[in-house]
């Protein structure tokens, strides 16, 4: 695939601020600053120690580093070469997720960062198909969903580390079932914005999307049902 292909802006997505901006509007420098939260602990509690793990949409490696430190054998995938340049300790693959076909199976496939809520149904199907294509028959796919009030509790903001703040400024309907979300990131020395399309899904809609991809819920891992362990569906 050519560099030009990877730099194509995804429809409805844009970003502003210093440094490189990825096709979905993410600012590489800003994502490299983000602290890790409880994601590694949630993941580690849900899968076997030392598992082979395919991280789809790894970004700048915020979670990747912790997973490597925890002993997982991580293959990290992102469509941005600039993001992958920030990743340490993992094998990296430069590719859009929905076009990925490594010819390999992994104990764990990870689809975090609310990517399953892609505004485009074709993209969402492609993401989930990539998950199903790469998970071992006895493996699992871990998915991070949006919270139930993610699109209605706006505007809202929270701290980022010790000196930053993130503000979800708006979630505006732009098509049937699709919102345009605008997010602002503030640090003392820089400011970034990201605008992207997101498709809210309730539990039934989410589980139907999984079924269409040949996956099924094994367990909701957190009380808010944001983190989910799924497995290949049995006939």
Description of the structure:
There is one protein chain. The chain has a seven-stranded mixed beta sheet, sandwiched between helices. A five-stranded antiparallel beta sheet has the order 1-10-9-8-7, with no helix packed on it. It contains seven helices and twelve strands. It starts with a helix and ends with a strand. It folds into two domains: 3-13 and 21-148 and 202-232, Vaccinia Virus protein VP39 (Rossmann fold, 3-Layer(aba) Sandwich), CATH 3.40.50.150; 156-198. The chain has 235 residues and is α/β, with parallel strands linked by helices. The chain has helices spanning 3-7, 28-33, 39-46, 62-69, 81-84, 121-134, 203-212, and strands spanning 14-16, 52-56, 73-78, 91-94, 106-111, 135-144, 156-160, 164-175, 178-187, 190-198, 215-220, 227-232.
């Amino acid at each position: 695939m050519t560099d030009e292909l990877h730099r194509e802006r995804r429809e409805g997505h844009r970003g502003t601020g210093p440094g490189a901006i990825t096709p979905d509007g993410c600012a590489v420098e800003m994502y490299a600053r983000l602290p890790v939260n409880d994601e590694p602990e949630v993941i580690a509690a849900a899968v076997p120690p030392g598992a082979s793990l395919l991280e789809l949409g790894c970004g700048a490696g915020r979670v990747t580093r912790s997973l490597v430190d925890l002993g997982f054998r991580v293959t990290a995938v992102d469509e941005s070469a600039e993001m992958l340049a920030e990743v340490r300790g993992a094998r990296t693959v430069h590719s859009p997720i929905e076009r990925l076909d490594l010819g390999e199976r992994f104990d764990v496939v990870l689809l975090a960062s609310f990517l399953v809520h892609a505004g485009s149904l074709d993209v969402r199907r492609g993401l989930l198909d990539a998950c199903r294509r790469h998970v071992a028959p006895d493996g699992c796919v871990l998915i991070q969903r949006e919270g139930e009030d993610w699109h209605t509790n706006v505007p809202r903001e929270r701290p980022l580390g010790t000196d930053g703040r993130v503000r979800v400024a708006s979630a505006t309907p732009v098509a049937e079932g699709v919102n345009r979300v605008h997010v602002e990131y503030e640090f003392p020395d820089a400011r970034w914005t990201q605008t992207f399309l997101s498709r809210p899904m309730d539990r039934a809609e989410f589980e139907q999307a999984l079924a269409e991809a040949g996956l099924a819920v094994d367990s909701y891992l957190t009380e808010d049902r944001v983190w989910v362990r799924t497995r290949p569906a049995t006939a």
